[in-house]
Design a protein that fits this description.
The protein has 161 residues and is mainly alpha-helical. Helices cover 76% and strands 0% of the residues.
Length: 161
């Protein structure tokens, strides 16, 4: 018996799955904004192919996607995937932070002084008088069915703290 080689032969199905995965990664890259692609570790020919794909339609776009998949088979996609995963995590964290500030804003408007004390502990640099004024104004706007301008300002104030 021969010892197993470090590189075993892959089945045709496995090769197809990997090619489709690379093509899907390429489609993700095509869907991204050009400014977001600048920071990714892309070879010049791949970056150009992605840029070219943006102006194409139907059949030409399909061929370009396949070409991008082919180009990706010649490079290591791991750094690109890692960079995309990191961006995704950062976006999720930013989204979570935004929801936290929205919850504080809603709580302050609904509960008033009860939540104000907790908010001042959480945000020690906040100005109590300014917060109270914004809360009163936001409640007044809500009662009068006006656009929530002050509510948005309260959110921004909390976020900037």
């Amino acid at each position: 018996m021969e010892p197993m080689d470090e590189f075993e032969e892959k089945s045709k199905s496995q090769l197809k799955r990997e090619a489709h995965a690379l093509q899907e990664l390429g489609e993700q890259l095509i869907a991204m904004k050009p400014a977001d692609l600048v920071d990714l570790p892309l070879p010049d020919n791949l970056a150009q192919a992605i840029s070219d794909a943006r102006g194409m339609q139907r059949g030409a776009l399909k061929r370009q996607r396949q070409y991008i998949g082919k180009l990706m088979r010649d490079i290591d996609p791991e750094p690109i995937q890692t960079a995309l995963d990191l961006r995704s995590q950062q976006a999720m964290e930013q989204n979570r932070q935004q929801h936290k500030f929205e919850e504080w804003r809603d709580r302050l408007i609904q509960e008033g002084d009860k939540a104000l004390g907790e908010a001042l502990e959480t945000f020690p640099t906040a100005d109590r008088q300014q917060l109270r004024q914004m809360i009163r104004q936001a409640r007044k706007e809500a009662e009068q069915n006006k656009p929530p301008r002050t509510s948005r300002n309260l959110f921004r104030y909390l976020r900037d703290l």
